[in-house]
Structure formats: structure tokens, C-alpha cells
Design brief:
With 291 residues, the protein is of the alpha+beta class. Helix content is 57%, strand content 11%. Helix 6 packs across helix 11.
Length: 291
């Protein structure tokens, strides 16, 4: 009995016995084998597509050149790559959430977008900002952060960095006036467009990060809006110690925290540092060591 897939004979199954007596049995075996073949091809096709999508998204975020063969494979899968303009970063508050199940849900809900797990995070590329409120609630344990619009898919790493920065700065604490989403986006976008402008200042900021007690103090300074009393109360440190540490922070960063311009500049460096990759930090640290 011939085994067919997409109207092509790909094999045969042999059944012994009197043809007149076993024909119905042979047909049943034929149909069963064809069904199994179809299911196997379909499963492999889905897995292959997911692998291609994951490679594509990871490559774009790493700034790598996309292999023309990979690009063509995705096009043949009816993925409209040229219209991908937004990146969404998905954050989960529940560690027990099955990310593969989440990916399946997202693919069904947004068939014109592509999604993948990248370094244990869920990332979505889409042609327009996606609406999540009607499908997900806070109790589901998901948070969605949409990055800026970019001109083409080759710049989606920029959209990703904005989305990731937003995920870090989303909060309900009204004490800190600095953690404003639009301000964060402006800082990140300006850095992504002009990274070289910040390099020298970032070297100073990295020197601050390398001193844990001073870095902890500066983070508290941001959180409590420069209130020495609140910093003392929350870090359980004497006022004079806090004042001394702030002086050391100013010495290292060359920023006067009593100056609005310097204070904003240092906060900008703090914001930018959160989205730097390990490779970028290592490169800056290496140049510090050679100076």
C-alpha cells in the first residue's frame, strides 16, 4: 500500500495475506501510517520554525549579521520581517510560569508577530504596538514593556533596550520624582544614538559601582530624593557617614550632587548602566585599567 504525503508517494507498507481478505485491514494501516507521517512532519515543521525564529531574534539583539539563508527561510514561512518595527519585553513575576506555554499563547494571540525565549526572557517582535490588557491581567503574573518604534528590523535591538529599561524602572513608588517613564526613554534613546558621548562619564560611574558601599548609598540617594534623613533611617547609618560617602561619590564621578545639571548627568549614567551588557562593561573597565 503506498504511503503518500502532500500527494507524493514517500514509501510503502507491505501486508501479507489473501488480498481479498486483508484489503480493509491494509487500508487501515495505510491511513494510520500516513497520519503518523503527517503529524511528524507537522511537529518537526513547528519546531524548525521556532528554532529559526529564536536564532533570528537572538541574532538581531546581539547585533549580528543575519544569514541570508535564515532570512529566506523565515520569509518562506510567511513571516513579514520587513514590517517588524517594535520589540516587547515580557517580564514574569511568577518563577513557576512555564515560558514555553506562554510562548504558545502569545503565538496564537498575535499570529503576525514572532516571539522567543532569549536568555530566559520572552521577547516579541511585532509590526505595531500590541494590546495586552484584554488578554492578560496582573494576576496572570505577566508584565509587558513595549520599546520605541524603529525604522526597520535591523534596529530592533534599540527597541529592546528601551523596553528592558522600562521594565527596570516601572514601580509605584511616588517618592522618587526621577523614575518617570518618559524621562527614562529619553535618556536611553539619547545614549543609543550617541553612545560615544557618554563613554568617559560611564568610566567614572563604573568606578563608583566597583565600591559597593558608595553605590548602595547613591541608589538610596536616588530612591529618597536626596533626603539625608531618609537615607540614614533606611540604611541605619549615621548622618556624618552619609555626608562623607556623598563627598566620595562626588570625588569619583566629578559630579556635584547639589548642582541640578550634575545631578541629572549622574542619574543619566545610572539609568544607562542598567542596560549595558557585560561585554560593554568589560570593554569600558579594560580601558580604565589601561589609563
Amino acid at each position: 500500500m503506498p504511503i503518500s504525503y502532500k500527494n507524493k508517494v514517500i514509501g510503502v507498507v507491505g501486508v501479507t495475506g489473501d488480498p481479498s481478505k486483508i484489503i480493509e485491514h491494509a487500508k487501515l494501516i495505510q491511513y494510520t501510517v500516513e497520519l503518523l507521517v503527517w503529524r511528524e512532519y507537522s511537529t518537526n515543521k513547528i519546531i524548525f520554525k521556532q528554532m529559526m525564529v529564536s536564532d533570528f531574534i537572538a541574532g538581531v539583539l546581539d547585533g549580528k549579521e543575519i544569514n541570508p539563508g535564515l532570512y529566506q527561510e523565515l520569509v518562506e514561512m510567511n513571516i513579514d520581517i520587513e514590517n517588524l518595527k517594535y520589540c516587547t519585553f515580557v517580564k514574569t513575576s511568577n518563577v513557576s510560569i512555564d515560558k514555553f506555554r506562554v510562548l504558545d499563547d502569545l503565538r496564537k494571540l498575535y499570529p503576525n508577530s514572532i516571539a522567543a525565549n532569549v536568555e530566559d526572557n520572552i521577547v516579541i517582535f511585532s509590526s505595531k504596538p500590541l494590546e495586552f490588557e484584554s488578554h492578560f491581567t496582573k494576576k496572570d503574573g505577566y508584565q509587558f514593556f513595549i520599546g520605541c518604534r524603529v525604522s526597520n528590523w535591523r534596529n530592533l535591538d534599540k527597541s529592546f533596550k528601551v523596553a528592558k529599561a522600562l521594565s527596570m524602572y516601572t514601580h509605584t513608588d511616588l517618592i522618587c520624582r526621577y523614575k518617570e517613564h518618559k524621562l527614562t526613554i529619553s535618556i536611553i534613546l539619547n545614549y543609543l544614538d550617541n553612545p560615544h558621548v557618554y563613554n568617559e562619564d560611564l568610566k567614572k560611574y563604573i568606578k563608583l559601582v566597583e565600591k559597593p558601599t558608595l553605590y548602595q548609598t547613591y541608589e538610596a540617594y536616588i530612591k529618597y530624593n536626596g533626603s539625608i534623613k531618609d537615607i540614614c533611617d533606611n540604611l541605619f547609618i549615621h548622618r556624618n557617614t552619609i555626608i562623607y560617602r556623598i563627598q566620595k561619590i562626588e570625588e569619583i564621578t566629578k559630579c556635584n550632587l547639589h548642582s541640578f545639571v550634575d545631578s541629572f548627568r549622574l542619574y543619566s549614567l545610572h539609568t544607562i548602566y542598567q542596560i549595558l551588557t557585560k561585554e560593554e562593561i568589560d570593554a569600558l573597565t579594560e580601558t580604565i585599567e589601561h589609563e
